[in-house]
């Protein structure tokens, strides 16, 4: 955040991470560490490829079915 703060950990911004799972994040205020993490993020982004909505629309039925079942059962997990 603003090249001054870095949060590293396992928590996601969802209900499971906040209330059910044992997740942990650490917040760092060390400018050198923050800049190094930004460099690493840039390297990761340079190696990634964009995901377009059209590709998601063309998923096979069994993939969509598995995702739907996981979504329905997720509150029970």
UniProtKB/TrEMBL annotation:
SUPFAM superfamilies noted in UniProt = Phospholipase D/nuclease
Database matches in Gene3D superfamilies? Endonuclease Chain A
Q: What InterPro entries would the database entry show?
A: PLD-like_dom
Domain Phospholipase D-like per the UniProt entry, residue ranges: 2-39
State the protein's name: Phospholipase D-like domain-containing protein
| Native species | Caldifermentibacillus hisashii
Q: Which domain of life is it from?
A: Bacteria
